[in-house]
Amino acid sequence: xxxxxxxxxxxxxxxxxxxxxxxxxxxxxxxxxxxxxxxxxxxxxxxxxxxxxxxxxxxxxxxxxxxxxxxxxxxxxxxxxxxxxxxxxxxxxxxxxxxxxxxxxxxxxxxxxxxxxxxxxxxxxxxxxxxxxxxxxxxxxxxxxxxxxxxxxxxxxxxxxxxxxxxxxxxxxxxxxxxxxxxxxxxxxxxxxxxxxxxxxxxxxxxxxxxxxxxxxxxxxxxxxxxxxxxxxxxxxxxxxxxxxxx
Amino acid sequence: xxxxxxxxxxxxxxxxxxxxxxxxxxxxxxxxxxxxxxxxxxxxxxxxxxxxxxxxxxxxxxxxxxxxxxxxxxxxxxxxxxxxxxxxxxxxxxxxxxxxxxxxxxxxxxxxxxxxxxxxxxxxxxxxxxxxxxxxxxxxxxxxxxxxxxxxxxxxxxxxxxxxxxxxxxxxxxxxxxxxxxxxxxxxxxxxxxxxxxxxxxxxxxxxxxxxxxxxxxxxxxxxxxxxxxxxxxxxxxxxxxxxxxx
Lengths: 247, 247
Description:
The structure is a homodimer.
Chain A: E1 15-18, H1 19-46, E2 60-64, E3 86-88, H2 90-96, H3 98-105, H4 109-113, E4 115-118, H5 123-135, H6 142-154, H7 158-170, H8 177-186, H9 190-202, H10 204-207, H11 211-219, H12 221-245
Parallel strand pairs in A: 2-4
Antiparallel strand pairs in A: 2-3
């Protein structure tokens, strides 16, 4: 027989589908592609101009601390005004984040002054964060993904958090698995947690030699316990499966 | 053979694809569906809250004339302040429409006053128009589609114009074909023009009896000429094809 799709001959044992199903599947594919085109043009329409191109209409500014370590801002006030402000619109922040919504719709200091101070990020990260709120676009590297995920979690911008988590999950390897696992745990990133835990368990033989492992034992031994528990569960399941498969 | 998709038996002459192509097609379908899910969540993210929910942050208002006929506002000034204003954000209007962008980024009266007067629409249409600029959503009926298309053309909101045109094209029938054709011509709606012209040509026998035809001959005879020219071209082509097919 001749395949209607690749136009090559095949044997009966390599048969796939009947003609009707093939034609239906082709139609479905066309429909899905049309839907994708429609959605893409909707995304293009809904994307706002960058706030820097709309600066004359902005009604608040965000200030970042120049401290680059998100977890330990040494002196929050010292560098506040040394980095440029990031202009934005209340309406956009309110639409994108329930945290900004609560902050700006109530009589809070930020709402009155039109200044939102964000101590625990660098200027570059804050700028990318705000840019994402307008455009749903950002160029990620591993550092940026990590910092933006933290910010997205803090301000409950789910879409950005998922985007960063996907990126980080695609970058997990045996070298960074322990660090990724600890990070995922800290920031409730389930997909990243599962991917890194799975990779850790695939490399249990070398786990205890790793520097990050030793650090984790020091800092957060409960997390290490969870690794061992997961490993044990996996071993028990594998053993049970092997037993079932025995003749 | 058994079809892997519908699980029914089929004869050799009803064969569709080989197994490899079937599996590939299934994977492609899954991928396309994932892409659709991603795009849908991006659309949900980019959608702004309705301006009515953001009213405390709006920085301009649009006023509609209560005149319901878009083409003949009898006295533009008479009803300006009798309908409620539609609040909006400069940033959103600038992002969505090059016409609003030019209006608001230059020192025009509208930019200074924060009031945009739109005489040739009803309040309901203007509200739906602005709502669409924020959300890419609108509930259409034939009147609304028609009025919004006009507004979308005027303010160069391409995405909305295409959306309305698609809706109107889906509603063309032998009853409204002549009116749709004239409307499409006036507003550069190519898809609608082709659909209505095709339907007119399918019903040429009754064309001259129609009231809208007689009106069109009065108002815009050149459009009627174009109908006859298209009909003639179609007849010539059909005749040529018939000749080729003759043995």
